[in-house]
Amino acid sequence: MSKRAHRSPLLTARDGMWLVLTVATTLAPHLGNLPIWLAGVATLLLAARLFVDLHRIPAPGKILLTTMAVAITVLTGVHFGELFGRAPGLALLTAFLGLKLLEARTRRDGLAVVLLCFFMQLGQFLQSQTMNTAVFTMIGVIMATSTLARLHGVANAKGSIRLAILLALQGVPLMLVLFLLFPRIQGPLWGLPGDAFAATTGLSGSMQPGSISNLVRSGEIVFRAEFSGEAPSPRLRYWRGPVLSKFDGRTWTQSNHREAKTPFYRVSGTAYSYTMTLEPNGQRWLLALEVPIGGPDQARYSSDYQLLSERPVTSRIRYSARAYPEARTGAEATEDILQEALALPDSDNPRARRLGQNLRQRHDAPRMRITALLEQFRESALIYTLNPPLLGNNPVDEFLFDTRRGFCEHFASAFVFIARAAGVPARIVTGYQGGEQNPVDHSIVVRQSDAHAWAEVWLKGHGWVRVDPTAESSPSRIDDGIRTALAGEVDLPFVIRADFDWLQAARYRWEAANNAWNQWVLGYDPRRQRLLLNLLGLDSTDWRQLTFVIFLLSLLIVATLMRWVYARPSDCDELDRSWRKLCAILARAGVERMHNEGPLDFSRRAATLRPDLANQLEQIGSLYAFLRYGLRGPDDLQKRTTLKKLVDELGKQ
Amino acid sequence: MLKEIRGELRSRVDGWLFRIRPAEALPVVLRQRRIFVLPTRFGVAFAFTLLVMLLTSINYNLSLGYALTFSLGGIGMVSILHAFRNLLHLEIHPAACPPVHAGTPATFTLRLRNDAGRPRTALLLSVPGGPAGTPFDIAPHENKSMAISLPTTRRGWITPGRVTLSTTYPLGMIKAWSVFAPDLRCLVYARPETPSVPIQAHGASSAGAAVGNTGKDDFVGFREYQRTDSPGHIAWRLAAKCERLLTKQFDGGDAVELELDWSDLPAALGTEERLSRLTRWTLLAEAAGIPYSLRIPGRIVQTGYGPAHRDRCLRTLALFGHRDE
Question: Is residue A502 part of a domain?
Fold first, then answer.
């Protein structure tokens, strides 16, 4: 090793700076995802290398570096509690890249640093695959490639960057062929570490005061839906998530439910079909528009009418489904489900309980009790706000009678509580409501800020009927979305606030582009590849055919590039370019060359018209005539350069 | 021994593989059939990295990971063409290769002609057994002279053998090279004997050994300067070269030319030692400014003086026993 390293040329200080720049562009997107101390260590290592190069001092010795490596490994292990996950893995690689950079002395070391950089650029995609990330990675690749060029003899900075860009551009056709045709296999090939897909924000399957309003502060996209045909109006857009039926006085949790491959209901009425692109949420719920049929191949239906995926959704998935907003569900609800939907904790919220009992006494029909309850909500002049006051031990009472300010979870929770007290089976449904339509590509975008909680009551003969108590106090939440309903509350994520119209237009465009990116670049999976191959008339299962096609296309690309390799722009071309440029300059100045005019005549005529430039013009004319028609001489190259320089100078005047 | 066999075998295999004729007339133009490309050690490491990246992309379903891996693959592939293009259409012309004495490295100068409008970057000329060269660039339309040096050990002709022009431009993943055996040869004179022995030759006119009264007429050689020596007899020209003072020794008589004769040398000397000594004497005589002639078995160089005469003598000595050309 050491013998070989000696043969490898030593890195110059300038090489070192290129390496630092490469590592910096590679690691920059990672820093936000690293533990803060490690981000600091990585930055320090880079700075140390820069310092070593700038001041030409010896780099730290092997012992110090080894000690640092061991210390960082131990600290990483302590920080994450393990070493073999995705996050600790990336953290360790970052640290090692920094250490290797600091240690690098010879070209071989430099090359190892660049290879590690390439790998880290890939590692970044484990965190994010947005367009921004792609652009950043592109910059990183160009930097790394030009560093390679630099380490192999391309001395000037501009030249090496230009070369790297040229290489990358010439590599694009091959990249496209492989990207589209290389057989896509649905991973994983081996077991992934447990944290392969970091926890994402989203609905959690339980609800307590504050859980939804926290979610609303995020502008993150949950899913996009593209309707084939007219999209349903906002007040019909209830995207169903976990159904919460159990209540312990503070927290609502999911009901007991069963799952089956066929739905627990029959559908009828108007159907809306749509294609859903669901972002990974680490959960099984598919957030289908009520009442759903369809979904991905392995979709399950639950007895509380959710659409579930077989396994947690860990990567973006796309599937089509239909919704029947008018369909009835739950006409045949069993006794245990209804019992669960009536259960209340033993003693709390006395005032709300009393209200429920009153309703029960006043109205016989459950339906009337609900109507009266909603009336009561309306009259209480409750205020819909993202920042409700904190509630004590009797949250329903305090919300309804004292503070009167709450978010949808307060509304839904209070409503279901009283309905149960009034003897009407009721439960909470969490999910998303509304979503906005992007005017550019017409897809409906639903974000965390559209998270919502509503209620369902069971009425004999009607089954489960959706009731949205929030709508009673803040109808605009349902009709116009949360932006309007909460206009003026500064806590809303910047992207969804209503007060910047131009910003909104830009955002729509950006999101449409993002959607296309997600669909066509990130969403290019085995299924899409199959579709494309079928479209091209290829058999996606025949790998030999596919290999042959890839080979053929690559050959075609290489053959095309070979034309460039063999192209020999002759000296005359260069000469002609200079001459044409001169003619153009003079034409702009009003001296047009006549067709029968030779270079000498033309330049002489131009010289008489522009006596201030006479010298240059005549020199150019005679040089051109000599180079074009004269004998070849040893100083042709010099003359050609002179001619070019003269013309260029003329162009600037 | 084994090494020699291996070297021989290798040069034969190379000769067959790369179609090297024993020696080809220059200029050589590097066309497609003479340029070879293979991945370097770094190229293999890069390919391995790409493989790991591809597996990671598959495992984590990273669509952008595929894109990154394949675009790096594309860059790697295109760099093959760049490496190839860096050598394509270069012309190699012969230039001078002045004679040297055995023991000093022979220098072959080649003129590399770049007719294209693009620079050629990081080229490397090397010969087996020669020192590791340093990379050089050739500007557009430039004619660049590059020297390769080879160590010499024996007198006679030396040829550069297989000369390799290679490049790892642009990214060091691919080595493109071309091998040619230019029809060039350099004459290696015999190694001048060191330390030098004073010339013991007789003047052209007098026969017999060069011993006798140390007079002023017949030059017989040099000896270390002694204080009593006349400054007029100091070999100033040699003093400048050898940094020590030598006094010319003359034998009585009027001969002013030397006969450097093989047969006058002690019988105990072998062939190479004789040639070595005569080579030294030729140099000494030339430096002293005395006309001289050379006589070795089979060849006689008539009395003369001057660089051309010296070179003729040295050449005769160098090629003793060789089929002269």
Answer: no
> Which residues from chain B sit within 8 angstroms of residue A118, using beta carbons?
49, 53, 68, 72
The side-by-side arrangement of strands in the sheet containing B299-304 is B258-261, B292-296, B299-304
Is A468 among the catalytic positions?
A: yes
Please check the confidence at residue A644 and state whether its pLDDT lies above 50: yes
The answer on A602 and A557 residing in a single domain is no
Separation in Å, CA A300 to CA A333, A360, B105: 19, 37, 84
Residue B30 counted as domain residue? yes
B-chain residues within 8 Å CB-CB of A192? 59-60
> Residue A539's domain spans which residues?
526-566
User: Is A521's CB within 8 Å of B42's CB?
Assistant: no
For residue A280, list chain B residues with Cβ-Cβ distance below 8 A: none
Same-domain pairing of A559 and A596: no
Catalytic residue among A257, A408, A410, A450: A408
Ranges A20-24, A177-181, B101-105: which has the least confidence = B101-105
Q: Chain A interface, mutation test: which of B31, B51, B77, B143, most A Cβ atoms within 10 Å?
A: B77
- The pLDDT tens digits for B251-305 are 544 446 788 888 888 888 888 888 888 888 888 888 888 888 888 888 888 888 8
Minimum Cα–Cα distance from B44: chain A residue: A115
Residue at A513 is within a domain = no
DSSP secondary structure of A315-340 = S-EEEEEEE-TT--B-TT--HHHHHH
Structural domain containing residue B241: 218-318
Cβ neighbourhood burial of B200 (10 Å; 0-12, 13-18, 19+): middle
Confidence of residue B220 (pLDDT cuts 50, 70, 90): low
pLDDT above 80 (res B49): yes
Q: Check whether A129 has a pLDDT greater than 80.
A: yes
| Residues of B in Cβ contact (< 8 Å) with A571 | 117, 141
**Interval A253-275 mean pLDDT:** 83
In a domain, B210, yes or no: no
Whole-structure pTM value: 0.67
Are A562 and A588 found together in one domain? no
Whether residue A8 lies inside any domain: the answer is yes
| Residue B211 is assigned to a structural domain of this protein | no
What are the pLDDT digits (tens) for A467-511? 888 887 777 777 767 766 666 665 556 555 555 667 777 877 887
Beta bridge partners of A243: A429
- B273, B307 Cβ separation under 8 angstroms: no
- What residues of chain A, 117 to 136, have a C-beta less than 8 Å from chain B? 118-119, 121-122, 125-126, 129, 133-134
CA distances from A175 to A35, A180, A398, A542, B78 (A): 34, 8, 62, 21, 11
The alpha-carbon gap from A106 to the nearest alpha carbon of chain B, in Å, equals 14
A98 and A217 in a common domain: no
A325 and A265 in contact (C-beta within 8 Å)? no
Subunit contact A125:B135, Cβ cutoff 8 A:
no
Q: Distance (Å, rounded) from C-alpha A372 to C-alpha A366?
A: 10
**pLDDT exceeds cutoff 90 at B176:** yes
Say whether both A580 and A556 belong to one domain.
no
ipTM computed for the complex: 0.76
> B230-258, pLDDT tens digit by residue?
566 666 666 666 666 666 665 544 446 78
CATH number at residue B74: 2.60.40.10
CB B46 within 8 A of CB B113: no
Count of domains for chain B: 2
